[in-house]
Amino acid sequence: MNKVVATNRKAEHFYNIEDKIEAGVVLHGWEIKSIREGKIDISDSFARIEKGEAWLLNAYIAPYTKAGGYPIDPRRPRKLLLRKEEIKHLSGKVLQRGYTLIPLKVYIKGRWAKVELGLAKGKKLYDRRREIAEKDMRREMERTLKGR
Asked: Residue 117 — φ and ψ, nearest 5°?
């Protein structure tokens, strides 16, 4: 059973998600404890492929209060664990114009933290406005049908 810890609500609004993939994350000892408590923010984060490795950038994991030792940057780059074939597939897509890798959610699977990455293409402003107008029309139709 997967326990969803964090979701990126902005992703569906700003991007068209075309493909989803699951990746593991390399973490320090206290980071997994902080994630289990839900102290993670992925709203402004993204993933990048560099030198055949996938990295999660700009994800904020709050420092674990009970952990001692040396301080670690809460926004440090974290390596994503993917197979070579998956990295090649994603890097080929990302090199195409307009595609990016966005973390959609972070969840606990067994005892491991996993990230669901979305291969996304940015929406234009007029697409987002049209989507909002369609939602409003659907909501109005449901209200009128419910009132009858």
From this structure: -95, 145
User: Considering its fold, how many domains does the chain have in total?
Assistant: 1
Over residues 27-52, the mean pLDDT reads 89
Q: How does pLDDT run across 87-130, given as a tens digit for each residue?
A: 988 888 888 777 889 999 999 998 899 999 999 888 777 777 88
By the 10 Å C-beta count (0-12 exposed, 13-18 middle, 19+ buried), 23 is classed as: buried
- Whether residue 38 lies inside any domain: the answer is yes
In which domain, by residue range, is 21 found?
2-123
The two structure tokens encoding residue 28? 């320090």
- By three-state DSSP, how is residue 21 classified? strand
The angle formed by the CA atoms of residues 32, 33 and 36, to the nearest 5 degrees, is 85
**Rounded to an integer, what distance in angstroms lies between the CA atom of residue 56 and that of residue 41?**
12
For residues 94 and 91, give the distance between their C-alpha atoms in angstroms, rounded to a whole number. Answer: 5
